[in-house]
Amino acid sequence: MKKFLLTVLISIYSMLIFSQNGTVIDKTGESQPFCKVIAPDLGISTYCDFDGKYFIDVPDGTLLEFQYISYETTYAISRDSLIVILKDISIDLNNYDM
Prior knowledge:
36% strand; 7 strands; elongated
């Protein structure tokens, strides 16, 4: 029984150490639901929820990539309670010939 309890405590502790969370917003402060969050070095990915919040099981200091339609891909180093601000992709339509 002691071994089982110790195993459970170690599992919970390791989840707390490796679980990172954060929020993805745009420059106006609007949350970005369903933004894709990727840890390319580890091959792990997840999506933000409706409030722009994400949870990903990676250690502190892991490179994260944030992808969302009509926004530039953004990179950040993981840490708990990270807030990522996405930048709009700007396209100058005046330079295109019709």
